[in-house]
Write a structure and sequence with these properties.
heterodimer; A: mainly alpha; 5 helices; B: about 260 residues; mainly alpha; 2 domains; 2 strands; about 5% strand
Chain lengths: ~160, ~260
Amino acid sequence: MSSRTLARAAVFAALYAGLTLAPGLNGLAYGPVQFRAAEGLLPFACVDPAAVLGLTAGTAIANVASPMGIYDVIFGTLFTLVAAAIMYRTGLRIWALAAPVVVNGLGVGAELWLVLHYPLWSSVGWVAAGEAGVMASVGIVVLLLVRRYKSVLGLTECVT
Amino acid sequence: MRTSIGQYYPANSPLHRVDPRAKFVAVVVLAVALFTRDSFAALSIYGAAALVAFVVSRVPPLWFWRGLKPILWLVVLTFVAQALLARGEAFYSLGPIHLTKRGIELATYLSLRLVVLVLFGSLLTLTTSPISLTDALAWLGRPLRRLRVPSDELALMVTIALRFIPTLLVEIEKIMRAQRARGAEFARGGPLRRARALVPVLVPLFVVSFRRADDLALAMEARCYQPGIRRTRLHPLVARPSDFVVLGAVVATIVAASLV
C-alpha cells in the first residue's frame, strides 16, 4: 500500500465517520430505520481501491457509537467491505448502487434480528429501504460527480 | 461542530490504566457472553459487573447518560416491538393490539440487555483514548499479517482518520457557509432537490479532502515513512498484573452468570 493510498483511505474514513457522527445526522444512523448519509460515499469505491479500505475503516469508527456495540463494529464493517468490494468489481455503473442496498439490507437486517430479536424480513426491508433512499439521493449524486469530475478529484491516478 | 467519537473521558482511574488490549478483549468476550444465556439472573450479574466497573472508572454518571441518550429511542422501539409481537395469551387487548405476559417479559429482557451492551461499550470508549484503542487493535491484528492483511497500516489509517474528522467537519461548515452566502439553500424542497443542493458542497469538499490527503502523503514520504515496514512506538504497550486481574474478573463474571 503506497503512502498516497493510505492517506486517501484515511480521508475517506474520516469523511464517512464524520458524516455519520455529525450532530443532526447521527440520529438516524443506527437501528432498524436508518438513513446513513455517509453511505452515499460508496460510489467512490467503484473507481478507487483506497475508498474500499477507507470507507470500511470509516464504518468501523462510526459503529463504535452504535447501540449494537461490538457486533456492529465487526459485522457492520464487514458488510461495508463486501458492498464496497462488489462496487469496485462492477465499476461506475448505476446498478452498482444496488450492492449496498442488498448487502446491508440482508446483513444489518439479520444483525437486528439476532441482537434485538426484530422480525427478520421487516428488518431487512426497513434497512434496505433506508439504504435505497440514501443511494437514490446522495449516492446517485456522488456517482454522477465521480463520473464527471474523475480527473479533478484525482481518481484516474490511483496507485495501490 | 462537535462529535463525540468514543466519548473518551480523560482521568487516572484504575480502569483507565488497564492495558487497552485487555479492555478490548474483555468487552468483546462480555458482549458475546451476554448473548449465550437468556435469563434475568444472568443479565443481572452482567449488569452488576458493569455497575462495579463504572464506579471503578470514576467517570461522572452524566457522561454515561450522554452515551445512553441517543439510543433511548431504540430501547423504546425494541420494547414496543417485542411487547406487541410476542405470541401468547393476552392479558390486555385493545383492538388489534394484544399484550401478553411473555411479550412484556421478553421486551423488558431485550431492552435491559441492550442497555447493558451499550454500557459495556461505553466503559471501553470512555476509559480508552481512540489512539490507544487503535494501538490495541493493531497489536491484536498482528496474526493477520500472515494472511497479508496490513494491520499496522490499517491502524495508522484509523489514527489519521480520527485526527482528520474534526478538520473535515469544520471544512464542511465553512463550505456550507460560503455557498449559503452565494444563495445556496440546503433545507428546501423534496429529497431530490435537497440531494442536488449538496453538489456545491460535495465537489469542493472532495477536492479539499483529496488535496489534504496528497499533502499528507507527501509529508509522510518526506519523513521517510515506508509502508510495510514495522514501526516502533513512543509508548509501547506493556501488560501488567492488573490487566490479568481484569481478565480474571471477566472470567469470574461469565462463570457466575452461567451458574445462576
